[in-house]
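I am still getting used to backbone structure tokens and would like to learn alongside you. To get us started, please write out a protein record for me. Once you have written the record down, we can walk along the chain together.
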Amino acid sequence: MTNPIKTGLLAYGMSGKVFHAPFVATHPSFDFRAVVERRHKQATHDYPGVISYDSVEALLADHELELVIVNTPSNTHVELAQQALQAGKHVLIEKPMAATVAEAQALFDLGREVDKQVLVYQNRRWDSDFQTVRQTIESGQLGQLIEVHFRYDRYKTTLNPKPFKETPVPGSGLVYDLGPHLLDQAISLFGKPLRSHKTTGRYRANSQVDDYFTIHLQYPQGLNVFVTSGLLVANPLPAFVVHGTTGSLHKGRVDTQETQLQQGLSPTAPEYGQEAPGHEGTLTVVGAGDEKTTTKIPSVKGDYTGLFEAVYQALRNNVSYPIQEEQVLWQMALLEQNPGDWAFLG
């Protein structure tokens, strides 16, 4: 592959090691050139030849870099993305892109002003379980959809040691942590909702931010979509439940990519992204005479490489990036919405 995209990471913590470096290092269309590491210099051990800069300013001064991945704490995304754009770099920004619609719009506008692309990292579109749900819905076997539930549940009584996740500042709390994953999946399937209603709560001892939320999205033709997450769910329900006029689908959250990457498996390994047996989805279809047929639906292969391929195509071939600007702005409006009242998305 000629002319690979010279890429830099703004951090080499968990997200840098797990969700970004393995892909920019193995995808032939990328050249993993640099990373910011203020204290511990680990990247050069894992990826010999990578430049480890001491500061964001030093990395942005690297004239060879074309793409900067903004994978720092969420409350720094807007400022650092602005700096990277003004330094003449394209940006790939982790979720949440910003805390408000206005901030997100300003970044997209700045990108157009400096002729650089602003791309948002929503890797969960490439999860194996979600891809399976998408394929099943698009197959038409469920008929007209009536009710859809997407959940992301955990059981964590202790507060997160990362202060930016537990401090009540704009963009903090579970809504902004896991909400972007669930909302992006819903928006990628169903588009812009007609209206929405948000409920949030705090249940962990001494929590200063929300640790539970549910957002009800209403769509045309009576479709109701619920995205829900909680940090005190001891026995999670299926992560994906879809009911239609001719069938129902239940699917657990079983994507294995994060675990495999944490264990050091390369995205190029044959077993990467393959779901383990025994976690298949359950599809129940109603036929003539209301006869029900239930089958097991194995997941398709998950692969976050698809996101990086989309980044490459957007930057080198001007192909439309699948996580579109308007979709991100709809997501931001839903995240920013005050709890308690129905809101229309304009």
Remarks:
- Residues 5-121 form a domain with the Rossmann fold fold (CATH 3.40.50.720).
- DSSP finds twelve helices and 15 strands in the chain.
